[in-house]
Amino acid sequence: MKVKNILVSQPEPADIEKSPYGELCRKYNVKIDFYKFIKIEGISAKEFRMAKGSFHGHTAVIMTSRHSVDHFFRMAQELRYEVPDSLKYFCISESTAYYLQKYVQYRKRKIFHGKQNFIDLLDVIKKHREENFLLPSSNIHKQSIFKMLDAEKISYTKAIIYKTVASNLSHLEIDKYDIMIFFSPAGIHSLKSNFPEYEQGERLIAAFGKTTAKAVKDAGLRLNIPAPTQSAPSMSMAVEEYLTKLARMNRKNGRNGKK
User: Fold this and answer.
1) Distance from C-alpha of 223 to C-alpha of 80, rounded to nearest angstrom
2) 148 with 188, same domain?
3) 8 A C-beta contact, residue 82 and residue 54
4) Using CA atoms, how far apart are residues 117 and 114, in angstroms rounded to an integer?
5) Which residue spans within 43-196 are E strands per DSSP?
6) Contact 128, 121 (CB under 8 A)
7) pLDDT tens across 223-246, in order?
8) Contact 88, 60 (CB under 8 A)
9) What is the pTM (predicted TM-score) of this model?
10) Which residues are bridge partners to 206 per DSSP?
């Protein structure tokens, strides 16, 4: 088998030449396309009210992404809810915390952050158990976050204020790609939504994370390149590992006179 075209279900990096995918293109003479398989849409204030959602009565808010920041303040405006200066912000990372500057005066607010994952942030949250937390969320969210908060008996309210939906991929020639790379179950759902008759055949599917791997199998597809692994902690490394083995196999078959 030869790999010529690879599809990554994410936006193209700002500078692909300096990214790991740029290196794959040069090293293995492959073409890599990037397309967003999913997009984020805000839930309206009317929908939020109908679901009996409210921002009132909370003393702190947990921000797990820039999307949660954007849609929290968008919803506050639509609800005509005046965000109190006393509100405390608990952000999953320092970069998410700094992103708050788009909406608030950073130095005049009580802002806390973890290192990069929710486990780190939970250690910070546990030191503020007296707070009543609001957790802005999408319709598709990591259940592990809620389980961790529940296990620690943290008082919080989940507020679904945005949703993840499938992008329109009708313009894609999906069958031309030898490898498709996915990073979330939502990406797999988008594939099935856009191409319900898609048949994998000999084409390869790469998936990052256990939940994405499960979504691949649940969709009746075959997972060929899992990540992370002990030898390949990133998706690009896992793909490179596979391409290296494939190139070695093709050379061996060539020496043996096989096509």
Assistant:
1) 47
2) no
3) no
4) 7
5) 60-63, 88-91, 110-113, 133-138, 156-166, 179-182
6) no
7) 999 999 999 999 999 999 999 998
8) yes
9) 0.76
10) 181, 225
CB under 8 Å to 46, separation ≥6 — which residues? Answer: none
Return the structure tokens found at 196.
């319900």
**Last residue of a domain, which of 106, 135, 164?**
164
Same structural domain, 142 and 96: yes
Domain span at residue 130 reads 41-164
Counting Cβ atoms within 10 Å, is residue 174 exposed (0-12), middle (13-18) or buried (19+)?
middle
CA distance 239 to 211: 19
- 40: which strand partners? 164
Q: Residue 99: in which H helix or E strand, if any? A: helix 94-99
Q: Which two tokens mark 41?
A: 């849409």
| pLDDT 10s digits, 43-54 | 999 999 999 999
Residue ending a domain, choose from 115, 146, 164:
164
SS3 42: strand
Closest CA to 9 of 231, 209, 218, 246: 209
- State phi, psi for 212 to the nearest 5 degrees: -70, -40
What is residue 109's DSSP assignment? S
- Domain CATH number, residue 137: 3.40.50.10090
